[in-house]
Design brief:
By secondary structure, the chain is mainly α. 73% of the residues lie in helices and 0% in strands. α1 (2-21) runs antiparallel to α2, α2 (38-60) packs antiparallel against α4 and α2 crosses α5. This is VanZ family protein.
């Protein structure tokens, strides 16, 4: 049951890893989408989606009742740790680097994902 309800989260985690750990010179130029700090908006968005998916998946699964009861806290903590780890690993990826501002954007994204989850549940 765990994989069934968390498959989208796991796919999203893999997608984040692929996108953020691809060497920087291999990332296509998206000039018409560019505006200052666009990368921070992207970080915020991908981590908001991550927390949203993870909260939903952890709440629905029944394999781990302790995590089910603490889905919000677990989702935010796991996502924050994942965001920091991704940034640290980028130190070793060509044309990538650790950026504290990305960690902040990831954290704001985690909070946004939590808020969106609450909003969707109330609708």
């Amino acid at each position: 049951m765990f994989i069934k309800y968390n498959a989208l989260t796991l796919i999203w985690v893999l997608l984040i890893a692929i996108l953020t750990l691809t060497p920087g010179n291999s990332v296509p130029d998206v000039g018409f989408w560019y505006f200052p700090h666009m990368d921070k908006v992207v970080h915020l968005g991908i981590f908001a989606v991550l927390v949203f998916l993870m909260i939903r998946g952890l709440r629905k699964q029944s394999s781990f009742p302790g995590i089910q009861k603490r889905a919000i806290g677990a989702s935010i903590l796991i996502s924050l740790i994942y965001g920091v780890l991704i940034e640290l690993i980028q130190i070793f990826v060509p044309f990538r680097s650790f950026e504290f501002e990305d960690v902040i954007a990831n954290a704001v994204g985690c909070g946004t994902g939590y808020l969106v989850t609450n909003l969707v549940q109330k609708i």
